């Protein structure tokens, strides 16, 4: 199943990254430039992010942050905040030094700027208003079940076994490692690199509404085990309109 491959690739990428972080920063010496002074966004991205998000911001195990639809809904401030603080309970760790990571604030800003500069393209959502990045209302899992049947089951199946075109997104183990915002982001932007449609094209000609998306996420989240660490991570702030850049 594709989803298992993606999860396995993510685990591999994590161990590779943890593996190279273990020795810590190289000791300062005349021949080793201070790593804090590196501001080359491409280099920083390839060293810190490409392992999970893909060399070109797509085809990675984790969400495609180089997708122009993603860059149309997520503001720089949102991205900087996620990169700095991470998403507790998931593979997305905190990168800012003040949060225990390896990067300065200037490096985080350089990476985010570089991502937008290289891959942002506002024509990806020309003529449409994408759904807001964060949920603006409470979700209803029961309505979400119906929305799931309409918009998702054709590919993901109606249970934990997955479906004809994609793996299960109801698997408790999978849901233990992804936040509600992580789910929302993928429902909005899809995974075009793996033929997963964005919010407009799950059912061609019938784009999902903001409420459909919120309800589907509530339905999926209702399958997450109560013990999952992401359960305890701070929810994405409501009422913050997305779409700003
Ligand atoms: C036309 C087929 C199709 C439809 C409809 C569809 N998806 Fe997908 N989805 C995919 C494919 C293909 C993938 C990537 C391969 C995989 O994860 O199995 C994917 C991936 C995902 C992922 C990421 C899985 C991961 O590895 O992190 C999530 C979450 C997801 N879909 C949720 C949904 C939800 C929720 C809906 C309904 C609102 C939906 N999808 C509708 C085909 C589809
Ligand atoms: C070990 C794998 C891994 C690495 C390395 C990694 N990420 Fe992530 N990233 C993830 C996962 C998994 C998520 C989804 C977390 C969730 O469930 O919300 C994520 C989420 C994100 C998001 C938020 C997506 C959204 O929902 O809006 C951004 C932005 C992001 N990562 C940027 C980066 C950048 C920039 C780097 C490098 C500095 C990086 N990531 C490194 C795994 C990783």
Q: How is the topology of this model organized?
A:
Elements: H1 2-21, H2 41-48, H3 50-53, H4 68-73, H5 76-85, H6 105-119, H7 141-151, H8 153-156, H9 172-175, H10 180-189, H11 210-221
The structure holds heme C (2 copies).
Describe the structure.
With 245 residues, the protein is mainly α. It contains eleven helices and no strands. Helix 2 crosses helix 6 (105-119), helix 5 packs across helix 6 and helix 10 (180-189) packs across helix 11 (210-221). It is globular and about 65 Å long. The structure holds heme C (HEC) (2 copies). One heme C (HEC) is lined by residues 13-14, 17, 48-49, 51-53, 62-63, 65, 74, 79, 82-83, 87, 90-92, 95, 111, 178-179, 181-182, 185. Residues 2-3, 6, 151-152, 154-156, 165-167, 169, 183, 186-187, 191, 194-197, 202, 216 line the site of one heme C.
Concise structural overview:
The protein is mainly α. The chain has helices at 2-21, 41-48, 50-53, 68-73, 76-85, 105-119, 141-151, 153-156, 172-175, 180-189, 210-221.
Top keywords for this entry?
single chain, 245 residues, mainly alpha, Cytochrome Bc1 Complex, Chain D, domain 2, 42% helix, 0% strand, disordered C terminus, binds heme C
- Overall number of domains: 2
Small molecules held by this entry:
heme C
Helix content: 40-55%
What's the CATH architecture of the largest domain?
A: Orthogonal Bundle
Radius of gyration: 18 Å
What structural class results from the helix and strand content?
mainly alpha
Q: How many individual β-strands?
A: 0
Mean pLDDT: 88
Series of secondary-structure elements, N-terminal to C-terminal = HHHHHHHHHHH
Poorly predicted residue ranges: 234-245
* Separation, N- and C-terminal Cα atoms: 36 Å
């Amino acid at each position: 199943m594709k989803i298992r491959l993606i999860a396995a690739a993510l685990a591999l990428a994590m161990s590779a990254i943890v593996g190279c972080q273990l020795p810590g920063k190289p000791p300062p010496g005349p021949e080793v430039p201070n790593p804090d002074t590196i501001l080359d966004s491409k280099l920083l991205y390839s060293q810190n992010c490409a392992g999970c998000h893909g060399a070109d911001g797509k085809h990675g195990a984790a969400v495609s942050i180089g997708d122009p639809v993603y860059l149309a809904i997520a503001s720089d401030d949102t991205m900087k905040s996620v990169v700095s603080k991470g998403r507790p309970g998931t593979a997305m760790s905190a990168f800012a030094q003040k949060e225990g990571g390896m990067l300065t604030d200037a490096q985080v800003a350089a990476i985010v700027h570089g991502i937008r500069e290289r891959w942002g393209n506002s024509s990806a959502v020309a003529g449409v208003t994408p759904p807001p990045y964060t949920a603006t209302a409470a979700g209803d899992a029961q309505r979400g079940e119906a929305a799931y049947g309409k918009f998702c089951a054709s590919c993901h199946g109606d249970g934990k076994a997955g479906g004809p075109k994609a793996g299960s997104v109801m698997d408790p183990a999978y849901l233990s490692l992804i936040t509600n915002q992580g789910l929302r982001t993928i429902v909005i932007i899809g995974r075009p690199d793996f033929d997963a449609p964005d919010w407009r094209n799950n059912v061609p000609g019938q784009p999902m509404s903001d409420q459909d998306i919120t309800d589907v996420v509530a339905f999926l989240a209702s399958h997450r085990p109560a013990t999952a660490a992401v359960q305890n991570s701070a929810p994405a702030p409501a009422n913050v309109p997305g779409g700003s850049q």
